[in-house]
Write a structure and sequence with these properties.
heterodimer, A: mainly beta, 51% strand, globular, B: 116 residues, mainly beta, four-stranded antiparallel sheet, 12 strands
Chain lengths: 114, 116
């Protein structure tokens, strides 16, 4: 988990509210990613960013939004349009100098909708 | 398109016995393959990766994996399991033909339980 921080560790939200999950890295990585993890479904890519001020939708982007204003930061907003937001959210980062670089993961944020 | 299958949801092994966690993949070109481990309520930790060359890859904590192109497999192995190896293991793939995209596709995970 070293080098990538996610906050908060646990987050509770009422239905209809937007909530923002924080992800910060001090690894000087260009690329950053957001995944959603549900039991038995592995990791699914929500959004990714390969460079500041640019990001791309992943496989399950509906109901989520991101920004990448700084290299170190890639916050994820879970909007009220996300129908089933309760999940474990993982942020990751990687260098871009080689396409076989592994991704480094943060400790995760567990979001529960009440 | 790239995809990964981990055919076993759970693997049980006795402490001290060898362990194998299976992974098969599908890519249009040649693959980069990765194994990660996840402990409860934690992020994923990188174990090892296959890039090219030697089909047997050695990684962290005594784990190794064997790349088999004809069977499109990349099984994770360890000669002697420890109770502390109990965790969730993920295989991931990236198609080299997708150069410029750094996306990984993950399997659904295999829960490894090492029984004392």
């Amino acid at each position: 988990d070293g080098g990538i921080t996610q906050s908060p560790k646990y987050l509770f939200r009422k239905e209809g509210q937007n909530v923002t999950l924080s992800c910060e890295q001090n690894l000087n990585h260009d690329a950053m990613y957001w995944y959603r993890q549900d039991p038995g479904q592995g990791l699914r890519l929500i959004y990714y960013s390969q460079i500041v001020n640019d990001f791309q939708k992943g496989d399950i982007a509906e109901g989520y939004s991101v920004s990448r204003e700084k290299k170190e930061s890639f916050p994820l907003t879970v909007t009220s349009a996300q129908k089933n937001p309760t999940a474990f959210y993982l942020c990751a980062s990687s260098p871009r100098d080689r396409d076989y670089n592994e991704q480094f993961f943060g400790p995760g944020t567990r979001l529960t909708v009440l | 398109a790239q995809s990964v299958a981990q055919p076993e949801d759970q693997v049980n092994v006795a402490e001290g016995n060898p362990l194998t966690v299976k992974c098969t993949y599908s890519v249009s070109g040649n693959p980069y393959l990765f194994w990660y481990v996840q402990y409860p309520n934690r992020g994923l930790q990188f174990l090892l990766k296959y890039i090219t060359g030697d089909n047997l890859v050695k990684g962290s904590y005594g784990f190794e994996a064997e790349f088999n192109k004809s069977q499109t497999s990349f099984h994770l192995k360890k000669p002697s399991a420890l109770v502390s190896d109990s965790a969730l293991y993920f295989c991931a793939v990236r198609d080299r033909a997708g150069a410029g995209s750094y996306q990984l596709t993950f399997g659904k995970g295999t829960k490894l339980s090492v029984i004392p």
